[in-house]
Design a protein that fits this description.
By secondary structure, the protein is α+β, with helices and mostly antiparallel strands. It has helices at about 1-15, 25-35, 85-105, 135-140, and strands at about 45, 55-60, 60-65, 70, 75, 110-115, 125-130, 130-135, 145. The strands form two sheets. Strands 1, 2, 3, 4, 6, 7 and 8 form a seven-stranded mixed beta sheet that branches. A two-stranded antiparallel ribbon has the order 5-9.
Length: about 160
């Protein structure tokens, strides 16, 4: 019991005095606690007119960035081009405006997924800032839903 108490006090003192740090832990523990890599992608985004563009937002889940059309892979938003009802058009416009705000709010990261492109030739990426998905933020705000494959009605 005395040996355990002595060890506990020694360890507590080492932590308190900064002698023992996370660098002394197993590599997997440090990696799990590490901060996300800094966001390095940035541009000034406009709203795309018709067709393609350079650094512009097409709709709530698609952007043009540095000459590539990018589909945000983790979400689905209502259609703004040929919406099926007025509610879809209104929600799609709101999602587009919000994505426009988000990509212009500062640096972000484009994360690859298990597929590089979709059947339309769009790059499939997850947009993050500070390690948090911008798509997930749109879902939390009620402007998108998680992508589960295929088309589902917004009407």
């Amino acid at each position: 019991m005395t040996r355990f108490l002595s060890l506990t006090l020694t360890l507590s003192a080492a932590i308190f005095l900064g002698v023992w740090t996370l660098s002394d832990t197993a590599p997997g523990v440090v990696a799990a606690l590490a901060a996300p890599a800094p966001d390095t992608e940035t541009a000034t985004f406009g709203l795309c007119k018709s067709g393609g563009g350079t650094n512009c937002v097409v709709d709530g889940d698609t952007i043009w960035y540095r000459g590539s059309k990018i589909r945000i892979a983790d979400i689905d938003t209502p259609e703004t081009h040929q919406p099926r009802c007025a509610a879809e058009a209104a929600l799609g416009a709101a999602a587009t405006r919000r994505l426009h705000q988000l990509v212009n709010a500062g640096p972000f990261t484009l994360q690859s997924i298990n597929r590089d492109e979709d059947r339309y030739g769009r790059k499939l990426r997850i947009l993050t800032r500070g390690g948090e998905s911008l798509g997930e933020l749109l879902v939390e705000e009620g402007l998108a839903r998680y992508y589960e494959g295929g088309r589902r009605s917004w009407c």
